[in-house]
Design a protein that fits this description.
mainly alpha, Arc Repressor Mutant, subunit A, Four Helix Bundle (Hemerythrin (Met), subunit A), two-stranded antiparallel sheet, 9 helices, 63% helix
Length: 243
Amino acid sequence: MLRNRATELGSSEKLPSKVVALLYRDIDSGTLLPGSRLPTEQQLADQFGVSRNVIREAIAQLRADGLIDARQGVGAFVRGKEQRAAIRIDREDLNDLSNMERLFELRRILETEAARLAAVRRTAHDLHLIGQHLRRMMGEERWQDGSIDADLAFHREIARATGNTYIHTFVSFICNRIRHSIHYARLTNPLHDLVTVNVAEHVRIHAAIEAGDAEAAAQAMSDHIAGAAARVGVKLVKQESGG
């Protein structure tokens, strides 16, 4: 008999993401063993008290993350750890400041080099998209949470401008994990000062990429990541870019 788990979902995130998080937990804890078949969509929908569409989205995410193998007409099966190709950073782990520091270190390594490459490889279309998101950050949305979307899109477009799909994939993944850190910074810092500094950092990055100055772009991005980390209480060791 499947237990009802609707009370575990709460209401702060999108339902598919919550279902994914709970199924992740079941897989990690061994409640769902490698090789075992997941309950049917209808059974999971009943268990979590959600629609089958929500379950379908959650299953698609688990499959994309490499945790399950969905077989047409047979069902979805849990993969063993050695079969998984996905990278996972649990949002709850980021409540630990040391884990947040590690994530910002990784982010600085990836995005500093992404900015360097973007300055060399960007196209006119790339510059248009990066600038479009910057203008959103500078407009009326800058006082609202919508500016967080523009901020993350700015970083994703720089990664895309490298022309390296792997860089874009990894930066996009990290962007999905740092959203709550940006929100936290906006809640714990004077909003006017934070927005002013944050926008200025992004303007500097954009200007360097537009000018095709790889070293200036890398340094501007490195400084921005260090600043973003500091705004959530994480101090990164000062790093100078350069060959």
